Every structure is written in C-alpha cells, then in structure tokens.
Amino acid sequence: PSPRDVFQMKDITRGPGMHNEQFDGLTWLSVPLFDQVRVWLLGASDAAAEVSALAAHVGFAVTAVDYDPAYLSPERFPDATRVLLDGGNFDELDKLTPAPDDYVCVLTRGHMFDPEGCVWAVKHNVHYVGMMGCKGKNSTVHDLVLARGASEEDWERIKRPIGLKFGAKTPAELAISIVAELVDVRYTQRYSPEARARHEESLGR
C-alpha cells in the first residue's frame, strides 16, 4: 500500500468501514482509546426518550431512571439500562451511585423532581450535569436545590438550560441540542486544547 493508503488504514476516526471496498480482503481490528461515557437520564420524559436513542447511537452508555413503568418502558428506551424507582417519586435515587466521569441530564416529567436530580448529580460530583427549563422555573429549582443542602457553587455547575442553543422546540429537536452538547463535552474532556486546535485547523475552521 502507498503511504496514503497506510494513513487511511490507521484513520479509525473515519472507521475501517469507510475503506472496506478500497482494501478488499483485509480483516479489521479496532481497539477503543477511551471507555464509554455513561449518561444518566433522570426522568422518562418524551425528550429523554429521544435523547436516549440519539445518545446511544453516538456511543454513550445510557441509563434512564424513573418511577413510572408506563413511561420507562422497553419500547420507549430500547437502548438504555432502565432503573425503575419505587414509591412514586425520586426518593430512591440516593441508592444509585454515578461515577465521577458520568454525565447527568435532568429531564423529569413536568420538572417535578428536577431539584432531587440536580442535588444528586452535584453531590456525586459528576463530570457534567444539565437541566432543562426556562428562567422562571430555574429560579424556583435554585431555591429548592439550596434548601436541600447544595451550595451556590454547586448550582453554577449545572448547565441551564441543557443543550446547545439553536432554536430547538420539539422533543426530537431538543434531543439533538442536548446530545450535541454531550458530544462536545466528551470531546473537550478527552482531548487537549492543542489537539483540538489541530483538529479544527485541519477542518479549515
């Protein structure tokens, strides 16, 4: 193979599948450089169901948490590990323990248990936590989060509203916004500023 062929063989970012027809007869073996990032979806809302599918598609390990089996169903979350809480609320959330490198998306239905989700995430010092909601709702959640023992510094760690800003409205659009942010956080977490600068330069950006 030519030097360019060798480069393409090594270019796992584009995937060996891109070159299967070009290099007929080769057997590909790839080893991931990074462990899979776990994303916790607190709440089985419609937006969470859309986030689950898209996050799994781009390589995240997804855990969805709720107390209602009708919402936290295999049909709505086929690619996620589902954790069903007892008691009709999020009181049992404290029995779960995320890892420091995990991401948490607070997406509870009707925002009923957003404070519990936020406190749980910051208490475990996860790498990323984001919450859906408008400015008015955030003020109310802010007071409830602090009343449950979190600090103002903890509150500032929570991305509000969750997701990249581009006018998303529907659950599917919101999922694109949220998962795009998760991908960006993962990219920033894994690569140094120098490596990211080289990548952006190679793309002409």
Describe the overall structure.
- The protein folds into two domains: 1-31, no CATH class; 38-190, Rossmann fold (3-Layer(aba) Sandwich), CATH 3.40.50.
- 39% of the residues lie in helices and 11% in strands.
- It is built from seven helices and five strands; from the N terminus they run αβαβββαβαααα.
- The chain has a five-stranded parallel sheet with strand order 3-2-1-4-5, sandwiched between helices.
- Helix 2 packs across helix 6 (171-190).
- The protein is globular, with a radius of gyration of 20 Å.
- 32% of the residues are buried.
Structural class: alpha/beta
Task: Based on Cα principal axes, name the global outline.
Answer: globular
- Number of helical segments with 4 or more residues: 7
CATH architecture of the largest domain: 3-Layer(aba) Sandwich
Question: Termini, distance in Å?
Answer: 31 Å
Q: What name does the CATH topology of the largest domain carry? A: Rossmann fold
Rg = 20 Å
For the largest beta-sheet, the strand count, sense and barrel status come to: 5 strands, parallel
| Number of E strands | 5
**Which CATH class of the largest domain is shown?**
Alpha Beta
- The CATH superfamily of the largest domain turns out to be NAD(P)-binding Rossmann-like Domain
**Ranges with pLDDT <50 over ≥5 residues?**
none
